[in-house]
Amino acid sequence: MDITFNCDSCGQELVVDEVAVGVTVECPNCGQELTVPSRDWSAPSETPTPAATMNAQILGLRVAGTIFGLVCLAELLCLVTGAELVVGGHQMPHLVGVVTVVVTGGLSFWLWKLSCFVTR
């Protein structure tokens, strides 16, 4: 695997095989003698850019809003068709379905609205 580093004197980028760690090499640009550094395994990986983080947040809000919207529509369909809501073998009153539609519909709307206000 290659190690990439820059000359301390002129900034020339040098690429050498990792077996050369600790060996002194000459910069092909300025002739400065350099010691090949070891690979820094503890260096942090690339951090996401703020734009990528914002895009991920927007996507997360919209996905969650869509899921709540689908649950709202499914429950609304159950209410319109008169289907029974059974939880754990017990029939739930229609008021539970109405509350579910209001809560999930409100959450869906709120999450989509939030996704429009996330600063890009």
What does this structure look like?
Helix content is 47%, strand content 18%. A hairpin with a 6-residue loop joins strand 3 (24-26) and strand 4 (33-35). It is an alpha+beta fold and 120 residues long. It has helices at residues 50-81, 94-117; strands spanning 2-6, 13-17, 24-26, 33-35, 85-87, 90-92. It has two domains: 2-35, no CATH class; 50-117, no CATH class. It is rod-shaped. It contains two helices and six strands; from the N terminus they run ββββαββα.
In short, what is this structure?
The chain is of the alpha+beta class and 120 residues long. The chain has two helices and six strands.
Shape: rod-shaped
As a percent range, the share of strand residues is 15-25%
Integer count of domains:
2
Outline the low-pLDDT stretches. Answer: none
Proportion in helices:
40-55%
Q: Average pLDDT, to the nearest integer? A: 86
Largest beta-sheet details:
2 strands, antiparallel
Number of strands: 6
Number of helices: 2
Radius of gyration (CA) equals 30 Å
Task: Please state how the strands of the largest beta sheet are arranged side by side.
Answer: 1-2
Structural class: alpha+beta
Instruction: Encode the helix/strand succession as letters.
Output: EEEEHEEH
Euclidean distance between termini CA atoms: 38 Å
Descriptive labels:
rod-shaped; alpha+beta; two-stranded antiparallel sheet; 2 helices; 47% helix; two-stranded antiparallel ribbon; 2 domains
